[in-house]
Amino acid sequence: DVKVTQSSRYLVKRTGEKVFLECVQDMDHENMFWYRQDPGLGLRLIYFSYDVKMKEKGDIPEGYSVSREKKERFSLILESASTNQTSMYLCASRNRGDNQPQHFGDGTRLSIL
Amino acid sequence: GESVGLHLPTLSVQEGDNSIINCAYSNSASDYFIWYKQESGKGPQFIIDIRSNMDKRQGQRVTVLLNKTVKHLSLQIAATQPGDSAVYFCAEKAGGSYIPTFGRGTSLIVHP
After folding, report:
1. What does the alpha-carbon distance between residue A52 and residue A62 come to, in Å, rounded to a whole number?
2. What CA–CA distance (Å, rounded) separates B20 from B29?
3. Cα–Cα distance measured from residue B90 to residue B33, given in angstroms and rounded to the nearest whole number
4. Shortest Cα distance from B52 to chain A (angstroms)?
5. A19-45: b or e for each residue (b if 16 or more CB lie within 10 Å)?
6. Which residues of B touch A101 (CB under 8 A)?
7. Closest Cα of chain B to A35: distance in Å?
8. pLDDT per residue as tens, chain A (113 positions)
9. CA distance B45 to A85
10. Phi, psi angles (nearest 5°) of residue B82
């Protein structure tokens, strides 16, 4: 089974802090993704990476950056956390190829005070 | 904490009934479709997928039906159990794209 592990289930940070969310997958997947999930808004794509050291903006990249130095690890960085970044953050990975599903981690519920 | 199930369409069924969850997709270029289950406090879990060259695919207690003419996808769950209570999302993806488009989801509530 595919295992996507997010380093924290719950995280509380303060406004202005730099926040790191880590994600590791164990299936040698090329593609990795960061989403945020908010009630009534569904899943919104922040950034994705189709291979090591590659990154592409998603629909809502403002206020975020990412790092993919190793194939198995994809980090999401909140440069200066703000209260409107309080959300559930979900990491996903998928194998390359057209007909491959994304596999998700269990999420990090981040609260910015 | 807040539930992802807020503000979503809800389907309530009795334990043992069959459930049908529907999804309309928008992109006629989509050729790959996926169903996910998300339980409270967890990430979406892959259930089943279907390619556009098929109109039906069966898994364990689940069946996905695809009607490309009307751009409609459904997930049928046989003999629904309380453990099936969750939010169910469909996703569509066009060939050559890395990114699926997710539906908003349907909350399934199974009453014992």
Report:
1. 22
2. 25
3. 7
4. 10
5. bebebbbeeebbbbbbbbbeeeebbeb
6. 34, 46, 49
7. 11
8. 779 999 999 999 999 999 999 999 999 999 999 999 998 888 999 999 999 999 999 999 999 999 999 999 999 999 999 999 999 999 999 998 889 999 999 999 999 99
9. 24
10. -55, -30
